[in-house]
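hi! just following up on the protien thing from before. the input was this:
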Amino acid sequence: METKNAKQHVQDVTTKLQDAKNCLNQALSSVEKPENKQQIANTLDSVDIALQDANATLSNYKE
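and the predicted 3d structure came back as:
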């Protein structure tokens, strides 16, 4: 098994964050209580920021 380099690990993170974003969007579309909806929306915002940061890391990565 080949060992991943740092950039590949960051790429894995972006994939997982995108999966988390998709799951949270599904949760948002099915949640009923407003307070739960707000909590999910807050989490989605945080994941979205993390995804943007991870993508920026990849864009600026020096080989």
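Residues 35 and 41 are 10 Å apart (CA to CA).
The chain has a mean pLDDT of 97.
cheers
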